[in-house]
From TrEMBL:
<dbReference type="GO" id="GO:0006426">
    <property type="term" value="P:glycyl-tRNA aminoacylation"/>
</dbReference>
<keyword id="KW-0963">Cytoplasm</keyword>
<dbReference type="Pfam" id="PF05746">
    <property type="entry name" value="DALR_1"/>
</dbReference>
<dbReference type="Pfam" id="PF02092">
    <property type="entry name" value="tRNA_synt_2f"/>
</dbReference>
<keyword id="KW-0030">Aminoacyl-tRNA synthetase</keyword>
<dbReference type="GO" id="GO:0006420">
    <property type="term" value="P:arginyl-tRNA aminoacylation"/>
</dbReference>
<dbReference type="InterPro" id="IPR015944">
    <property type="entry name" value="Gly-tRNA-synth_bsu"/>
</dbReference>
<keyword id="KW-0436">Ligase</keyword>
<keyword id="KW-0067">ATP-binding</keyword>
<keyword id="KW-0547">Nucleotide-binding</keyword>
<protein>
    <recommendedName>
        <fullName>glycine--tRNA ligase</fullName>
        <ecNumber>6.1.1.14</ecNumber>
    </recommendedName>
</protein>
<dbReference type="InterPro" id="IPR008909">
    <property type="entry name" value="DALR_anticod-bd"/>
</dbReference>
<dbReference type="GO" id="GO:0005524">
    <property type="term" value="F:ATP binding"/>
</dbReference>
<dbReference type="GO" id="GO:0005829">
    <property type="term" value="C:cytosol"/>
</dbReference>
<comment type="similarity">
    <text>Belongs to the class-II aminoacyl-tRNA synthetase family.</text>
</comment>
<keyword id="KW-0648">Protein biosynthesis</keyword>
<dbReference type="GO" id="GO:0004814">
    <property type="term" value="F:arginine-tRNA ligase activity"/>
</dbReference>
Length: 444
């Protein structure tokens, strides 16, 4: 606001005005929006951060008398009087009845009405609650059902930027428990970069559900962002989903969330489910890649762990690899992995079963023993989400792998020996793959 006012006036003069204390009965956000957004006035609070019935306007001409102040007060009084009228009228109608009015509001031509959208994210929010906090399902469903009701109120028609905020206030007025009221407000969060995130699980579940339904719906009907064209704010919605999941440490399968959302959507429209699922997954994952890159995770490391479907696991594994990727042991072992991968690809080999009786060298037996030992230990570490120790186990394979390649010819003339060694290498590759796809790390 200060920047806006500074650009509007050449020679500013502050004017202190006031309004009736009766208007303080309005929600603070209505008062602030009326003064700050609409009139470019600075609102005032007391030492306890409570709203006061004073404001500061900025005039471009020096006041000679009270004319400017009276003008400021007159305009604000009219706006606040309207707000009081709308607010009192709105409270006469229950949010449930407002929700029913959404049946007549088109959300998007192909995706149906706002009521149908609510029905979809109601199911998705219920699914999330069932996965993450089954004791919150009833409250989550109540939030999901009521959260769009304020769109049909008079205050929101006049102050559209107060969506969610007024829903919270109307829910309080009709006696809903506080977690429901708070969840209604929180389901819009985050609204922009750096905005606050939902605190309640109910608010988180409905926020994620609403956003993932928007993304899936738009992709299903071909409304995919291109360049700067993103009318449904799909990028912002994807980042919002990721930030909520990371902030609350929610453990869930991103793919299953997307697939369930598309399953719900398929009851309304027809589309290529598999294709849209991949598009949405890649779209959200690319946002996560950008977020983690800003936090110091290289793109190639992200690609190496992109097989993790759980976002918390993915970022933990990425952090662990980033911490060791510049070390000599990691570079050597990653190079060996790429060599193994290339040999297997060239041979078109996919089997992992081998016969130890066909081993001709002690180096094969040592590699076999190392594979079995490391596989067991790495699985334990990964299951316990201890990624650094798991990577250390991989690094511990350096000597035995080097010895194998230095002393054993994989592509032996004897077909059985060759195939047995290919299977041995594929088993070794499978151990690496438990942690990450090291072929995608660029420094090796």
């Amino acid at each position: 606001l200060l920047d806006s006012v500074a650009n509007l006036v050449e020679k500013p003069f502050a004017v202190l005005g006031s309004f009736s204390k009766e208007f303080l009965e309005l929600p603070d956000e209505v008062l602030i929006t009326s003064m700050k957004n609409h009139q470019k006035y600075f609102y005032t609070t007391d030492k306890n951060n409570q709203m006061r019935n004073y404001f500061i306007g900025v005039s471009n001409t020096e006041p000679k008398d009270d004319t400017i102040r009276y003008g400021y007060e007159k305009v604000l009084k009219a706006r606040l009087s309207d707000a009081v009228f709308f607010f009192e009228n709105d409270k006469k109608v229950l949010l449930e009845n407002r929700v029913e009015q959404l049946r007549d509001v088109v959300y998007q031509e192909k995706l149906g009405t706002s009521y149908e959208k609510m029905e979809r994210f109601y199911k998705i929010a219920s699914y999330l609650s069932g996965q993450l906090a089954s004791d919150r399902i009833e409250n989550t469903q109540r939030v999901a059902y009521l959260c769009k009701g304020d769109l049909m109120t008079e205050v929101i028609y006049e102050f559209p930027e107060l969506q969610g905020i007024m829903g919270r206030e109307y829910a309080r007025a009709q006696g809903e428990i506080e977690v429901i009221c708070k969840g209604i407000y929180e389901h819009y969060l985050p609204r922009f970069a750096g905005d606050e995130l939902p605190e309640t699980n109910e608010g988180c579940f409905v926020s994620i559900a609403d956003k993932i339904d928007t993304i899936c719906g738009c992709f299903a009907v071909g409304l995919i962002p291109t360049g700067n064209n993103d009318p449904y704010a799909l990028r912002r919605n994807a980042i919002g989903i990721l930030n909520i999941i990371r902030n609350k440490n929610f453990r869930l399968s991103l793919r299953r969330l997307i697939d369930y959302s598309l399953e719900v959507l398929s009851e309304k429209i027809s589309f290529n489910t598999k294709e849209v699922s991949e598009q949405v997954y890649d779209f959200i994952l690319s946002r996560l890649k950008n977020i983690l890159h800003e936090e110091g995770i290289p793109g190639d490391v992200f690609d190496a762990v992109s097989g993790y479907d759980d976002i918390i696991s993915l970022q933990s594994a990425a952090s662990a690899i980033t911490g060791v990727k510049d070390g000599e042991d990691f570079e050597v072992i990653a190079t060996s992995y790429k060599r193994i991968n290339n040999i297997l690809k060239k041979a078109g080999w996919q089997r992992t079963d081998y016969d130890i009786s066909l081993f001709q060298y002690d180096f094969e037996s040592k590699l076999d023993a190392a594979i079995k030992e490391k596989e067991s230990r790495i699985n334990v570490f990964i299951n316990n989400e201890e990624y650094k120790p798991a990577i250390d186990e991989l690094l511990g394979l350096r000597r035995v792998v080097d010895d194998f390649f230095d002393n054993v010819m994989v592509m032996d003339k004897d077909e059985k020996i060759k195939n047995n060694r290919l299977s041995l290498l594929n088993s070794l590759k499978s151990v690496f793959d438990i942690v990450a796809d090291l072929s995608r790390v660029k420094n090796a």
